[in-house]
Amino acid sequence: MFDSTRTLYDKPRTVCDCLYPGEVTGKQFTSVWTRDPRPAKSPGRSRDEIVRAAVELLDAEGLEGLSMRKLGARLGTGATSIYWYVANKDELLELAYDDFWGEITLPEPTAQTWQQTVAAAAHGMRRLILRHPWSGELIGRMPSLGPNALAFAAVLRRTFKLAGFAGLEIDYANTTLTAYVFGMTIPELAWNKSKADGGYDPDTMREAVTKATAGIPELTESIHNSWDLDPDQVREMAFSFGLGAVLDGLEARLVT
Amino acid sequence: MFDSTRTLYDKPRTVCDCLYPGEVTGKQFTSVWTRDPRPAKSPGRSRDEIVRAAVELLDAEGLEGLSMRKLGARLGTGATSIYWYVANKDELLELAYDDFWGEITLPEPTAQTWQQTVAAAAHGMRRLILRHPWSGELIGRMPSLGPNALAFAAVLRRTFKLAGFAGLEIDYANTTLTAYVFGMTIPELAWNKSKADGGYDPDTMREAVTKATAGIPELTESIHNSWDLDPDQVREMAFSFGLGAVLDGLEARLVT
DNA sequence: GAGTGGAATCGAACACTGTACGAGATCCCC
DNA sequence: GGGGATCTCGTACAGTGTTCGATTCCACTC
């Protein structure tokens, strides 16, 4: 089943590739999830351990702070040893990304309205993303086909189905909700990143924004409105406001 | 006003920095938009020209395909010449990102319901992002403080204000809409990227997804539902569905 | 215990990245 | 023509992901 003489780099081939070996240069869709993993025999170093260390490094230093050499150092091994367990950095990121999804608490659709269940899931997603900011940069880069991401998607889908959606609209509703959460949270990350990179100084930051929006009355008014409020609190309120709107809109589509 | 003996790398300093020059090592919030640009005297090479070339390169080869050396080659100059006009690559990306925003057609809030105006803007945003997929990877990385992005935000805000929203809710509504569009579109980019990187083969892709979702009945059902439909069309329909839901939800918040 | 073969590690090397630096070129104005 | 500002760019440095081949390690059989 598992041919150990092949390295991880031998991508699986289509029938076509086998018929015309060497001639066909086209690559094809490839993901960690479409390939059998290395068997983790040894008790010591394993794929899981590597992924865990990668996530730690990502949390600590962000996406651009993760390098194979640093990761190797953290694991106490050479950088290139990692390539025995993982085909390349992108696939390591796929694994880390799914590990991220594994951290979410699956909503329990019992003894609650579907709105409550979905709202809880939404807040959970937001908190999770904010806790692992690097995830936001991966969302637009790789489809999430890992088991943890899929498990979460399945639970959420079931919730919408139980709510009464049918056919394609189950998935439409599901996608709508996650889209809202992603779209609301990802730009937050950009701000947090700017704060972190620049060594947060509220005054200079405020000054920068004021300068940028000067001359646009619509926006100076906007800034004035929330001038004395805690930014984090405003974001929380905005999130809840939009979430309520999305849920109401979905419900309206349910009744008809 | 513009001191030419300073290079672009001398970040603007706070009063504090000036009092204790050299001792203060802390950075601070910095963006292209908070600093005076190089005056574009020369008729030939200019900042705009560089940004335009960068966007072309980004469109052609994606975010990871843009390197200063390649950009220099495209401009017919040395790579490091670019640094005369731009402090570093991140700021070049900020400029490219705002150039991206400049491409959007500002909605005209006349002779239409606010829903129609907003829907038009949403579809415009989605098309724009899909046309420049690299934008999706920047959204979570840098706040958009450029004039074009702000102009668009201002117009959209005015639309919500005219619709009847008041106070902070103007911005909440505005954020909710853009969040939905971003969140719906960004994961699309991930799929398109996988398709492009892998040399699109619908069968292997389908096989991969089938394999990944096997064992999760919720998701196999989901896939089965849209099995024979054109993925692009499904995404369009999903986008319109969710957009309608968001608009309805916002309207509900307006009446009360 | 010796031998063997696969599992796993890793050092060296390659091509590439962003960018700091400083020497040179080019231009315009007096 | 002199001089100062503007602009170009070759070189270099530290860092990146990844390949390759040699080396070590370990469990197993004879």
Oligomer: homodimer
Give the number of DSSP strands of chain A.
Answer: 0
Secondary-structure-based class of chain A equals mainly alpha
The CATH architecture assignment of the largest domain in chain A turns out to be Orthogonal Bundle
Strand content of chain A: under 5%
Give the number of helices of chain A: 11
In the predicted model, the low-confidence regions of chain A spanning at least 5 consecutive residues are 1-7, 9-26
Helix amount of chain A: 55-70%
CATH superfamily membership of the largest domain in chain A, which one? Tetracycline Repressor, domain 2
Average of pLDDT of chain A: 86
Distance between the termini of chain A: 52 Å
Total domain units of chain A: 2
CATH topology tier name of the largest domain in chain A: Tetracycline Repressor, domain 2
Give the largest chain-chain interface (CB within 8 Å): A-B, 82 and 82 residues
The biggest beta sheet of chain A is recorded as: none
Q: Rg of chain A, please?
A: 22 Å
Keywords (chains A, B): DNA-binding, Repressor, Transcription, Transcription regulation
Protein name (chains A, B): TetR family transcriptional regulator
InterPro entries (chains A, B): Homeodomain-like_sf (IPR009057), HTH-type_TetR-like_transc_reg (IPR050109), HTH_TetR (IPR001647), Repressor_TetR_C (IPR004111), Tet_transcr_reg_TetR (IPR003012), Tet_transcr_reg_TetR-rel_C_sf (IPR036271)
GO molecular function (chains A, B): DNA-binding transcription factor activity; transcription cis-regulatory region binding
